[in-house]
Every structure is written in structure tokens, then in C-alpha cells.
Amino acid sequence: MDDTLDRQWVEDLVRATIEEDLAGGVDVTTTATVDADQVSVAEFVARADGVVAGLEIAELVIRLIVGKDEVEIEHSVTDGAQVKTGDVLLTVRGKTRQLLTAERTALNLLCHLSGVATLTSRWVAAVAGTGAVIRDTRKTMPLLRLLEKYAVRCGGGQNHRMALSDAALIKDNHVIAAGGVAEAFRLVRKAYPDLSVEVEVDSVEDALIAVESGAELILLDNMPVPQLIEAVEKVAGRARLEASGGLTLDVAREVAETGVDFLAVGALTHSAPVLDIAMDLQAA
Predict the structure, then answer these.
(1) Annotated catalytic, 200?
(2) Which pTM value belongs to this model?
(3) Active site residue 139
(4) Which of 47, 76, 123, 212 is deepest in the core (most CB within 10 A)?
């Protein structure tokens, strides 16, 4: 984890996920089949190629269930590492019952975050050399935003705003409610003069209105490549431009080569498949 993640918040979240799995009881299958004193070694192993994220989160799950001073954990890689099928990520030694109880919660978080990092890395690779930056959105799972955006960074992407109060993003419904692009921008700038303001537009004409109003960042929503090229040419560097809406990996490079500064990709967090990681138990 990096310094942007509040460790107490992470621990509280992890404790909640553990409680969800145990629901105030015990792991009945493990308790019935495994001797209380049995000790084992478990390896967390990649079952597919990808970028790993969430190793310390998985470790925290294990330490909270097994006991901070009753488990030994060895990291073979760190978050952000490119891993191959068969690579060992973590090696853990502790009471077998507790290891098995921790397995699913640890893997749920580790596999999901590694999936986000892996998908992000593919987008970053697709636009490499163009100068365009891959950014995420607020299309995250409730309560997992900070972790998912951390995983985006592990994959080489950048974060958009974390919360509604971090920066203003004037979207189409705000424009309708305010009575136009220029008026919406004026109202936001008046209310929050020191805040970063981005304006979403769906036409080159509105992009130019936003620029003339003073916008420094413009989101070009669902524009086809020819329209993106026109917007880049007419804005002519007076504002940074972000392509968004309907983007896929197949067209990522073509979009990036139009000259936009950013590609905003909601799929990084709302549609990332998990990276397959397993916990393989061995006798100690």
C-alpha cells in the first residue's frame, strides 16, 4: 500500500469483510476437518499472467484471522509487479484452520485488485508513446473506491477525482439544469474559485464555448475519432482534453493518437475481470 491509503480505514474495511464471511460464527467445515494445532505453509500462486495489486491487503486479512504474532509471511513480489502463471506471490506459515478461514476473503480482495491493475496495464500499454494518459472514473464498487484507484495506479494509470468534493465535473445534466455550458461554468467558478473544473461536452462547438468561458480541462464525451481530431485542432492547446465514453482497448491507440491528453476509462474498475490467484496449502 502507499501513503494515500489510510491504514486504519483499510483495517476497518478488512475487518468488515472478515465479519461478512464469518457472520459472528466460525468456519464450520474447517473446524470440523482440521485439527486445532495443525500448522501448514500456504503459497499464493498466480494462475494467469498479470499485474499484482493488494498483497498487503491480503496479508492484513491473514494477520487479523491467524494472529499478528502467530503467522510468518514472505513476499516474493510487490504490488505493481508483472507476474507470470505459476509465480509465487506470498508464502504464509501458520495454523491451518485460520489459514483456510482467511483464504477466500484474502483472495477476493487480491484477485479483484490485481484484475483492476492488470486491465489498467493493458490500456497503458495500448497508448504507450502517444503522450496520452489513462485515467479512471468514479465508476467503482461502493466502499472499494480507494482500493480500486490504488490498483489503477499499480497498473500504471492515473486517478481522476476521488470524491465529488475534490474537483468539479460539469456534466450534461448540470448544463441542462444551469441553462448552458457557459452559465454552468460561471456558476461553478463563482461558487468554488479555487477548485479544478472540468466540463463535459458532446460537440466541438460546446468545447470551444467551454474554452472561451475559461475551462482548462474538457471532457469530450462519446466523440468519434474525426470529431476528436477536430476538437484537438480547434482547441489548439488552450485546454487539456479528455476522451471518454464508449472506449475499448481496440480503439484506445487510435483515440490517443488524436492528440487528447487523457482517456477516461470506467471499465478499469467497473468491468475488470479478476486475476486468477490461488492459495495452495502444503503440510508444514
Answers:
(1) yes
(2) 0.95
(3) yes
(4) 123
